[in-house]
Amino acid sequence: MKINYLFFTIIFFLSNKSYTQQTQDWTIEDCITYATENNLTVQHNKFNEELVNQDKKMANNAWLPIISGNVDNNFTIGAYNPTIRQGYYQFSNSTGIQSNINIYRGGQVKLNKEKAEIDLQAAKTQTEVTINDISIQLTNYYLTILLNKELKKVAEANLEVSRLLLDQNNKRFKIGKVSQAVVAQSESEVAQTARDVVTAQIEIERSLLNLSILLQLNSYKDFNISSIKIPDELSSRLYNLDEVLAYAQNNQPVVKNGLLQMQSAEKSIEIAKTSLLPSITGSYNFGTNYIQYFNKELRQKAFAVQLGNNITNVFGLSLSVPIWNQYAYKINIQKAKINQNMVEVNYKQAKQDVYVNVQSAYFEETSSYASYTSMKEAYNYAKISYEFALKSYNAGTINLYDFNRSRTDALVAQSKMLQAKYNYIFKQKVLDFYAGIPITLESE
Questions:
Q1: Dihedral of the CA atoms 243, 246, 250, 252 (nearest 10)?
Q2: Which of 103-107, 159-163, 229-233 is the least confident region?
Q3: Pairwise CA distance, residues 193 & 191, whole Å
Q4: What does the pLDDT read at residue 306?
Q5: Which residue, of 10, 74, 214, 257, has the greatest Cβ tally within 10 A?
Q6: Whole-number Å distance between alpha carbons of 176 and 393
Q7: Cβ–Cβ contacts within 10 Å for residue 149, how many?
Q8: Which of 139-153, 166-180, 185-199 is predicted least confidently?
Q9: C-alpha atoms less than 13 angstroms from C-alpha of 217 in its C-beta half-sphere
Q10: Least confident of 5-14, 50-59, 134-143
């Protein structure tokens, strides 16, 4: 009895078909959006943005006056009053409003406002850096799940072939065409390929778990990703390396953050220098008071009359000139300059990292495509060899052992081709990312 060639071909090479969507299917865009809104590190960065924004509001309001009020009440027990020539009891109250306003502080208010705005933009770019890093990780984990699903499909197809072979050899054994050893070998193949299917499912669940952990979901049991259209034939995108490098150096948030940090450090130096300049402060105080004696011999005017008569308005203008502060002003300026040097080094390091990362991404994309094409060619040859082995086995010219060896070679070649394929897709997405192309995968 011959094994149907068409059945073998359809079952064994079915791995290019996609999986049916399950309970809860997430696209790569869903994952990135969810992580952007719920990842704890991202949330921490966004809270930091809010804190910096509050600092900005304080800096913007620094030109406004400071106003405060006071009410003072005192009860005095005196040992001697010259009017009554004896001890006395007195209650006094004073009420007032004080106000101060900065008139001139060497431009410090304006500089603080400018620095606060820069710091807010830097905080936002730091959030973008975190989101970008998570997006790359999500893409890697997402593609790993797709790869493991395809590998399971291969394993399931291989299991079907093993079961078909076992059924065929059982029938041949009954009519005396094969020995019991051949049947036992087929049974062993079924057990082995069934174990491969279980292992493949475990790898799917492990990769789903990894992605759910990165997303910080409570459980991965009801979590699944969308089916994706992955073309059978992939082509390499033609990028100009210099153009990608130029774009990344100008647009990557980690570089923008470094540049903003430098600008903030420059403002810090200017702010520190204002401490060497004089400052002018204006003030205004309004107040009144009254006194109540508990000794009948002591006369006082009525409460309302005292309040009206005792009103005072005090206007003030003060000039403060720094003369000596244990070199603190000079040291603070030096510290600000040292911090600027450190920030400048960080900025240069960020640009260098982006340069290296883009170079590496370009190399990885090119080399992974070469690996994919070579693996695809190896798979095609292994498939041709398998097809000849299948015809020979059906014709009875080779034994089961030789046929299984050819089948295993084709299976291994197909698995390596799929791994190279998804590795290339990931490397391509990384290079797309540096070229300014959003990370996306087309769902079915």
A1: 70
A2: 229-233
A3: 6
A4: 84
A5: 257
A6: 17
A7: 22
A8: 166-180
A9: 16
A10: 5-14
What does the angle CA 409 – CA 197 – CA 381 come to, to the nearest 5 degrees? 20
Closest CA to 376 of 207, 196, 236: 236
Q: How far apart are CA 2 and CA 387, in angstroms?
A: 14
d(CA 310, CA 286): 11
Phi-psi region of 216 (alpha: psi -120 to 50; beta: other; left: phi over 0): left
Distance in Å from the first CA to the final CA of the chain: 40
Say how far apart CA 426 and CA 369 lie, in whole Å.
11
The answer to whether the CB of 330 falls within 8 A of the CB of 116 is no
How long, in residues, is the chain? 444
Residue 102: other Cβ atoms inside 10 A: 16
Work out the number of other CB atoms within 10 angstroms of the CB of residue 116: 21
Eight-class DSSP state of 78: E
Contact between 137 and 213 (Cβ < 8 Å): no
Closest to 346 (Cα-Cα) out of 257, 264, 269, 245: 257
411 contacts 154 by C-beta, under 8 angstroms: yes
Q: E strands within 203-320?
A: 224-225, 279-293, 312-320
Are 259 and 347 contacting, i.e. CB atoms less than 8 angstroms apart? Answer: yes
Reported pTM: 0.81
Kindly report, residue by residue over 331-374, the tens digit of the pLDDT.
999 999 999 999 999 999 999 999 999 999 999 999 999 999 99
Judged against a pLDDT cut of 90, whether residue 20 lies above it is answered with no
| Token pair for 346 | 């960080």
Q: Which range, 78-92, 170-184, 374-388, is most confident?
A: 374-388
Sign of CA dihedral 148, 150, 153, 157: negative
Tokens of 7: 């059945």
Quickly count: other Cβ atoms within 10 Å of residue 341's Cβ. Answer: 10
The DSSP letter of residue 277 is S
